[in-house]
Design goal:
2 copies of one chain form a homodimer. By secondary structure, chain A is an alpha+beta fold. Chain A has 13 helices and 16 strands. In chain A, strand 14 and strand 15 form a beta hairpin. The first copy, chain A, starts with 20 loop residues before the first strand and ends in a 20-residue tail after the last helix.
């Protein structure tokens, strides 16, 4: 067996070495032999490449080694780089020598159908699969796009705390922990904190993990998920929706531009994504209810819209749809009362097309101290915990608006995948805390 | 009082409107009057500007309003933009009219010395102060620089879970929560998870909040802080240190390049930062002990280095210093045994100059299955919790290295600030969970 040469090359750089003898290190994805010719598909994390082994041109030990190679064994392959338009990636390696660097006996995930619970039990290995790699590359691209969008628009990133003393929106769905003999809750949102940073920077955002202890097993729920929450001083609800449509369109455009190969792997119909650009259609909650009534829904004015209602509304839309100004009773205490209709608040949801449902919730915030106190009391929330939040209305109160976009739901829509549990490297579900 | 014109302008864009009459919205930082002329310094989050009010050129109501303005009142100011090289920012507003948009009676933070506990109690307002704004802008710039560094080098971002079933390094310093009748621990590191993603992407990183339930009140400890942890397949300990020095130098360069004004506000001696570039000096742990012995330290071979030892070592260095290959017993179980000296592991700390201490801990990871199992048993760690982690050594085990850089410690060094509690928008300390 030959000693590999020293010209170590990443697979995604093979194009720079056509005709040269190089060495690559990678994991064996598949092997198949045809008596005189065999193929090894290797992956090094930058890409995959097919390597061709001609029995007569290597020594017996190399052929024997080839025959013993298991899926996910780590190998070093030395060979000549050849251009081949038929090969995935456009290049092939003509193998001169192979070295086994680390074995992989009985790799659990075989190229057959496994149940999803089995795959989730082996998430630490499942990550290596082509579709999972594609999804997580899109996620990483969208994450960077989120940061780039706000950075180039001069927003200041504000990292908000996970450990909080204040109670969030849904007291029943909080994880809690002992905090040096106090009780801390894991944050469901960073919104209240980014609001505090507005008078310092005008435009701010947070982007991090959030937590919901919900006993929910739908395809749209995780107990731990990432959310980005911008907040803008002097912006009203209209400004807020304009920012949302610009933002979502940018994320889709970045994914199309820089993850085209990944979307192909996932067999995503990209035509539908190419049409995503502002403006998005807008209907009021009240208009939505009229449409839903015509479609046979029983939802009464005052109730929040459920997933079925959202799906019915989206039947008529290929673009994301804003539904704005929901009934006050259906939404959170901090949303600003609509001066033209005090039964509603200046808020919006943004529904994604193709059945992906709500990806954004946003609102103008109540900036009137007394109305905010009244709402806190109406909801029976602990006023003392919100003392600092009320201070923002005491000292130079200002109009401001913001929203939260769920990363995993957005990536599910962009990648066209059914279940958001695959949109995060290590999903946390009601029954899953491992690996 | 005049109605403000409609040409609403951000303070950092005033240069585009010299000679024009504009309106700005902002919070009053200070006012001072001299009988016939008065000054209002306003801040809108994009900048601050001095506005000049000439008594004879406005009506009585405007002057009266001026006299009633409190710190942090929100005002709308209409006036003419004038170039003035003496003014901070280079522009001034000649006031034509002022409108009070929201009052701020008895703003708690006055332009005098307050105790730090008082300021931390009012962190939601303290954020508005010039030095705090400067620090947090540097933090945001460094955060974006971290993402840009890895993105441009084709690392894939992997968001690792906060809620974990596995036990981390220091079982005694974990926050825990009930997780649907299981116990979950808040992650102290994402490292084990990013290791799992290496065979999928070769180069990966995580960047998010981490938690330590340490009863520590030093200026270098927070219970919740942000850490970035890259991990690279096929990289050894030397490669790892090269990546670290390149990374740290890039962060410093970005801060110098894009936060020069903020560093001036903080009176940072930037000359010392300008010299930060690779290579950084390297000494082994054993060499470090010899140097320390000469300096009178009692630290014995085998013990970890404390803050005092680190400070003594840094007396001789203006660049960050690598200390590598610590005794096995002083470091974590996952570090690779040094083949040339089995009493040590292939690891490094990176110490920042000017007394800022350790900002990075890194290592090559143990990739030998049996040695890793032996170390887990030696440390008395629960082997079952690490079953998935051991799988990474069972199936195509690979050499790999990585490190963790603490964001707040790094920003403290770059900004030249003493205490890391100011390096994060809402610090969490042993005695502080609010606001």
């Amino acid at each position: 067996m030959e000693v590999p040469s020293d010209l170590l090359v990443d697979i995604n750089k093979l194009g720079d070495y056509v005709g040269e003898v190089v060495t690559l290190q990678g994991w064996v994805e598949t092997t198949r032999g045809h008596g005189k010719v065999a193929f090894v598909v290797a992956r090094d994390g930058t890409g995959t490449v097919q390597c061709v082994l001609v029995r007569d041109s290597v020594d017996g030990a190399t052929w024997e080694l080839y025959e013993s190679l298991n899926q996910e064994a780590l190998v070093s392959i030395k060979g000549k780089v050849k251009e081949d338009v038929r090969a995935p990636g456009g290049y092939e390696i003509e193998i001169h020598g192979v070295e086994l660097l680390a074995p992989a006996d009985d790799y659990p995930i075989q190229p057959k159908e496994h149940g999803v619970e089995f795959l989730l039990d082996h998430r630490h290995l499942w990550l290596r699969s082509a579709q999972q790699r594609a999804v997580l590359r899109v996620r990483a691209e969208v994450s960077q796009a989120i940061n780039d969008f706000f950075y180039t628009r001069e927003f200041v990133r504000i990292d908000t705390p996970i450990l909080t003393g204040a109670i969030g929106e849904h007291a029943g769905t909080l994880f809690k922990t002992d905090y040096f003999n106090e009780t801390a809750y894991l944050a469901q949102t960073g919104q209240l904190y980014v609001e505090a940073a507005c008078p310092a920077f005008q435009k701010v955002y947070c982007f991090g993990p959030t937590f919901r202890a919900e006993k929910s097993k739908t395809r749209r729920h995780l107990t731990e998920f990432w959310m980005v929450e911008p907040e803008v001083a002097f912006a009203d609800s209209d400004d807020n929706m304009r920012l949302q449509e610009e933002f979502v369109s940018y994320l889709v455009e970045r994914a199309l531009e820089r993850c085209f190969d990944e979307l192909q792997v996932l067999e995503r119909e990209t035509g539908k994504l190419e049409d995503i650009c502002p403006p998005f259609p807008r209907i009021s909650y009240t208009e939505a209810l009229e449409i839903l009534k015509e479609k046979g829904s029983n939802t009464e004015w005052g109730m929040d819209l459920g997933a079925t209602d959202e799906a019915a509304l989206m039947e008529d839309h290929d673009l994301p749809l804003f539904v704005y100004n929901y009934p006050k009773g259906a939404k959170a205490f901090y949303m600003k009362e609509n001066p033209d209709d005090v039964d509603t608040v200046l808020c919006n949801d943004l529904l994604a097309p193709e059945g992906y449902g709500e990806i954004i919730g946003g609102s103008q915030r109540e900036d009137d101290l007394n109305r905010l106190i009244a709402r806190i009391r109406e909801e029976g929330l602990p006023e003392q915990a919100y003392a600092w939040y009320l201070d923002l209305r005491r000292y130079g109160s200002f109009p401001h608006s913001g929203f939260g976009l769920g990363l995993e739901r957005t990536v599910a829509w962009i990648t066209g995948r059914h279940h958001i549990r695959e949109m995060i490297p290590f999903p946390r579900l009601m029954n899953r805390l491992y690996p």
